[in-house]
Amino acid sequence: MTPGKDGAKYYGHGLPYTDIRDLKGTLITIEGTDGVGRSTQVSLLKEWLEVQGYGVIETGWTRSELMSETIGAAKAGHNLNQITFSLLYATDFADRLEKIILPALRSGFVVLADRYVFTAFARSVVRGADPAWIRSVFGFALVPDLTLYLKIDADTLIPRVLRTRGIDYWEAGMDMHLGTDLFESFRKYQWRLIREYNKMSREFGFVTVDATQGPEEIQARIRRRVQALLDDRRMQSLSSSLETLRPLLFEAEDEEPVAAGTTVQGADEAPARAARAPSRD
Amino acid sequence: MLRRGKLIVVEGIDGSGKSTQIKLLHKWLVARGHQVVFTEWNSSDLVRQATKRGKKKNLLTPTTFSLLHATDFADRLTYRIIPYLKAGTTVLADRYIYTAFARDIARGVDPRWARDLYSFAVKPDVALYFRVPIDVAVDRILGSREKIKFYEAGMDLRLSQDPVESFRLFQGRVIEEYDRMTGEFGFRVIDGTRNIDSQQQQVRSIVTRLYNEPALAEAS
Asked: Would you state the CATH architecture of domain A26-276?
């Protein structure tokens, strides 16, 4: 998303009734399979960004106001099929996109999404959905500025999950009837999910982070990537706001303040944010 | 061999008279000895709570409105439509995917997106479209029952502060979408301004012909 140039992009047909040309914020998504440590990394990253002075909004899978209860109940009821499963996720995602992510990006926040559409793609495709169909359903999704993919293999993942919180029904893909043994089902299901993520990595340009390392090493790598992205965006904002300001700076000083205010409002948010952020030397 | 049941759907705006007609058709088919089930738009348990909350608190956007209805439809297709068709039962559907296309597109979602979204649907044996001018629909609704509902009137689009005017504008767009789809999906158009019984005669003569045809392919 390049503000003032091409504007933000959708993956597919988008939201025709929504203007996304004025998104000043940055959308960073963190993907990876169950138990890989996404949430830990998201909260560490959020903390670090806030210390630097960035406004951060976090959004997580199935946490929408509209759908979270319904999805919880549906999962408890075990009566979903591949299509309803995918559509519940799509509805949750659309609600969060329109009510949380887009407004936050308009106001210049950094949005950290714990899981994004790729989670839906992986889970739906391993359940037999047509990959083209599920991608089309999520065609209203914004292309993130950065997708960090926490990559792990199933053999490293399993002991980690067992050690921390144990295996749950859905994370073991028990609805897919891969077997009656929870452990075996988990292994097979996670192996398939990871294979899907790896396939998508190239298709969607994920930035892969080796998640077999310790949390600190993972976080250090994530911060380097995020810092580089934000530096880039700050330079873009500065140069585009300079362009906007140039004619005003050289015009008569008794310009109506109201007129100036409305024109510059969007543009002067970015330098203000840049000024808050400490220099990194 | 499994003989496929017929899938008969009725479409049209609120106040077009389609629900009256499908009830009469239902009675007649049962009287003639057919196994018949009826399914209605937006009636599955799966998203009932979310839809209710979304509507009550005006949380819905054109896209979430569309996706909730698609989820409802997918659930009913799985549990209420496909198994019955496979068993050879006639399924009568009061509104089908064309309702979603018409309303969602009138609300501003992308037409290609909406069609892709519902590409898992089964093609009906016949889609009866009850066409009425907007004024007739408005008069019937105002003359009969309770207030016009918020989303039915497209009040979420803020076309007008006045519910009746908003209904007129929004449902006018919906009619345009139905008219556009008539050729694309081969709707059988019924003039919804005619007498109830003469409409029903026309419906029955269309439906009779379905049962004279040889068995169709099984529902996939």
From this structure: 3-Layer(aba) Sandwich (3.40)
